[in-house]
Structure formats: structure tokens, C-alpha cells
Design brief:
Largest sheet: 6 strands, antiparallel
Strand content: 15-25%
InterPro entries: AT3G44326-like, F-box-like_dom_sf
Organism: Daucus carota subsp. sativus
Number of domains: 2
Radius of gyration: 25 Å
Protein name: F-box domain-containing protein
Order of helices and strands: HHHHHHEHHEEHEHEHHEEEEEEHEH
Structural class: alpha+beta
């Protein structure tokens, strides 16, 4: 290795992907020194997330610490296994009834947050080919964290209304040329589900959130789908769900929330009767935060949760990240089951109380 020139070593390292480059940096002193070059990591970020090719995004990444740090922060997935196994009775009072002082120990932190501090860097791949990239500066329709945004359900929708209608400008479609299997008819697709399986197995999503003020970034997506649903809400729609479990300590009673990233495709028919063109149109790509009860988190709490998520634990092991999502789903299911049991007990109590009142009334009347 000592006989190789630095230019040759650089040429070797620039051909590697991110994990391989990080491993090569531990192999020898020469590789370790060259691997610190920002240009190498800029190329890695560009190939991994094409949306980082934009000049304004490059300046942002340089501002928050450089491409090497950006890759180290955003390539691993968020892992949160600290999901409290609380029960429905732990909800002593509704969050809406809490005062701000009870919800937040540090009000200065809330005042210091702004929707304009957050940047979303999103890339969608199908069979390792990028089909959609977008950078969203700030949170749309949020004029500060006061007013309606503070109390309304938090939602970030990357697709405009015009992209969903007949206007084809900027629409994202997948066809047989992209690797989709041919479909003879919708009825056939209902039976074998080849198109659905191909879509679910091959689509990937990266949703990176950057906070410019605190100079931190994290990937909120699970990269590959956590689940999905065929033909929802019609027989031509495919819904795929990505996401991660984020900490909400000292923000919400449930202590953890789910980042829900939803992607929806619609099948495009050639004539609507006999033959079906194998083409899918991306009609929705959105992010919301949901608590243990299944309710959407409001804008005020979402800003705090997003800020905390940028400094949480991460792992390059996908199975570990998936395990944290399954743990959250398990606790959420147990909570909802307990809620239903409590409601059932109350219903029986009301019925028995009504019967007892009726018998007492009849006894005194007769």
C-alpha cells in the first residue's frame, strides 16, 4: 500500500459506496487520511440521495457540518425501543385540558422553534432507480408556531393538488419500462397481486429532516415499507406505509409517537374495461405524527418531537429499527384493546344501572 500514490488511493475510494468507504477508512493510515476528503462524501451523498445535488442543499449541508457528518447522521435508521408499557388508565386527563406550563417545562424552547427551521430532503426509488426527489424548505402553510398551526393536526404533503388532477405537469408514474410486471386485467391483479408485491418489495423512501438552527439531521423513514394495503380506498389504489418511532418524552403522555410516512399509487387503466395498462401514478406522499391513541399530533407538539428526533439513537441494522416499530405497534394494540375493554365495562355498567333504576321505579310504583 505504501507504494501506491495518493491519487491512486483516491481513485479507489471514490468508487465505493458509503458503508464501504467507512470500512476502508479503518483499513490503513493512507485510506483513513483520504477518506476525510469532503468531496468523496459529497459524491456518496449524491448517489444515495440525488436531491442533495442542488446547490442550495449543498450549502445547507456544508453549514451544518459537512457531507461526512451528514451521511453519518442520515444513513442509519432511527431506533427507539424506549416505548413505555403504560395502560389506558395512565391518561389522567386529556392533553387539551393541560396548560402550557404543564405541557412544557421549558417555554423558551417552544418560543425558539420555528417551522422555517426545518428542511425536508426526500427521495423515492424503485428498483434502485430514483423516480422522485424533492427538497421542501420549511413547513407549508405554517406562519410561525402560533395560531391555527399550533393546534391543528400536523401534516406535510409533498404533492400539490395540481399533481393529483388531470394536469400531468410534474407527475410521477411507473410503467413496464421501469420494471413493473404486465397486468392482463384488474380482476387478475386482485387474484395474484403481482403488481402489488412488486411495488411493495422494490419501492424505497428516504425522508431526511434537517434543522438549520441546531445543525442536526436525521432520516425519519424506514427506507423500505413497514406495511401496506391493496386497493385502498378503491380497487385501483395501493397504499404503502413507511416511518419510525420518535421519542416524545416530556412532550406527550405516551412518551413516544409514530412518524407516519404515507405513499399512495393509483393504477392507470388504458380503456377501463378489457385491458389495463401496467402504469402507476404517485398520488400522495405525506408525513404525519400519530400518538398511541391513533390521533394525529398537533403542530406545536410535532415541532418539539421533530427537534428531539434529530438527536436520538440510530442503527445501520434494519432489523433493529424494524423491531422498535413492531414494539410500538404491539404496545399500541394492547392500549387500544384495553380501551375497548374499559368501554365495554362502562356499557355493561350503564345497562345494569338502567335495569336497576327501572326495577326500583316499578317497585315503588306498584
Amino acid at each position: 500500500m505504501a507504494s501506491l500514490s495518493s491519487d491512486l488511493n483516491y481513485d479507489i475510494l471514490r468508487r465505493l459506496d458509503g458503508p464501504s468507504l467507512a470500512s476502508a477508512a479503518c483499513a490503513c493510515v493512507a485510506f483513513s487520511s483520504i477518506s476525510k476528503e469532503e468531496r468523496l462524501w459529497e459524491d456518496v451523498c449524491s448517489s444515495t440521495w440525488p436531491s442533495t445535488n442542488q446547490e442550495d442543499v449543498k450549502r445547507l449541508i456544508t453549514l451544518i457540518g459537512g457531507f461526512k457528518k451528514f451521511y453519518a447522521d442520515c444513513f442509519p435508521l432511527i431506533v427507539n425501543k424506549e416505548v413505555p408499557e403504560f395502560r389506558w388508565n395512565d391518561y389522567v386527563e386529556y392533553v387539551e385540558e393541560w396548560t402550557e406550563a404543564e405541557c412544557y417545562d421549558d417555554m423558551y424552547e417552544l418560543e425558539d422553534l420555528s417551522p422555517t427551521d426545518f428542511v425536508s430532503i426526500v427521495d423515492v426509488r424503485f428498483k434502485n432507480k430514483t423516480i422522485y426527489s424533492k427538497v421542501l424548505w420549511g413547513i407549508p402553510n405554517a406562519n410561525g408556531h402560533h395560531g391555527w398551526f399550533s393546534e391543528c393536526p400536523f401534516r406535510v404533503d409533498l404533492l400539490t393538488h395540481s399533481a393529483r388532477e388531470e394536469d400531468h405537469a410534474g407527475e410521477v408514474t411507473l410503467s413496464e419500462s421501469d420494471g413493473l410486471p404486465p397486468v392482463a386485467s384488474i380482476e387478475r391483479e386482485r387474484k395474484d397481486g403481482k403488481l402489488w408485491q412488486e411495488l411493495r418489495n422494490e419501492v424505497q423512501l428516504s425522508w431526511i429532516v434537517v434543522n438549520k438552527k441546531i445543525k442536526q439531521a436525521a432520516n425519519l423513514s424506514s427506507w423500505i415499507p413497514l406495511g401496506g394495503q391493496r386497493h385502498w380506498p378503491t380497487d385501483k389504489d395501493f397504499l404503502i406505509r413507511f416511518g419510525s418511532v420518535l421519542t416524545a418524552k416530556e412532550i406527550l403522555p405516551c412518551q413516544a409517537v409514530e412518524c407516519i410516512l404515507t405513499m399512495k399509487f393509483r393504477m392507470i387503466c388504458s380503456d377501463g374495461v378489457t385491458s389495463v395498462q401496467t402504469a402507476l401514478k404517485l398520488t400522495e406522499l405525506s408525513m404525519q405524527l400519530g400518538d398511541m391513541e391513533g390521533a394525529h399530533v398537533n403542530g406545536r407538539n410535532s415541532l418539539l418531537v421533530l427537534k428531539e428526533s434529530l438527536s436520538c439513537r440510530r442503527s445501520k441494522n434494519y432489523s433493529e429499527a424494524l423491531e422498535s416499530c413492531h414494539l410500538y405497534s404491539k404496545v399500541q394494540s394492547e392500549l387500544m384493546e384495553e380501551k375497548m375493554r374499559n368501554e365495554s365495562r362502562l356499557e355493561r355498567l350503564y345497562i345494569l344501572s338502567g335495569i336497576a333504576a327501572f326495577i326500583t321505579f316499578c317497585y315503588y310504583v306498584l
